[in-house]
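Reopening closed ticket. The problem is back. First fold of the pair:
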Amino acid sequence: MLVLNLRNIEDILKNKALKQKMPELSPYWDIWEFAVRNPSLKGLRTQTALDFLNSLKENQIKTLENYFDCPITIDKLDYRTVKNFQFSVENVEKELQKLGKIDNVVLYRKDNQLYISTWR
């Protein structure tokens, strides 16, 4: 089993054969290659690798599994600092239970809608 994460995703991005097998993701490859050639863009390089990892869908994972001939799992990283939710007032208790523990929260109500923002 191969676990793709931020540590090894650049090995995938270095592979030209995979780029041809997944042309729908070629913008990620192009931006990453540009950032590799320009050392001052290290942040863009890391961000593009992370975006590529998080954008992999089921059919692209199947392509990777066929290429490497082993099962693949994706270790996605939630890098969003702020999350926004919108609930109806009638369902708020059920929806809050789905969210689980939240530390920082701000909310407001407008008519029958409840808007919640959380952050790390």
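Second fold of the pair, where the issue appears:
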Amino acid sequence: MAKEKKFLTAEHTAQIITEWDNKTIDEFASEFDVAPNTIRARVTKIHKKYPEYCPRKSRKTCDDIIDAAVRLVKERTQDVITD
């Protein structure tokens, strides 16, 4: 039995455009029950046709992740000291 293909509707596309800054590709894919590559392909087409929408998101570098982890550790340490 073949797997049913899922497609993005105009409503899905509008939601991607309006919520692009707040959600990840994986979150959209889960919500719309499609593969992440389906979202990536749609976003690429949107951005090619309308550059002001769905700008490229910067990737977190290893240093960004380490800095965030250190901030979390410091916050947790401060919480323990103040309690």
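Update: turned out to be a display glitch only; the data is intact. The helical segments are 10-19, 25-32, 36-49, 62-82. The chain has a mean pLDDT of 87. Please close again.
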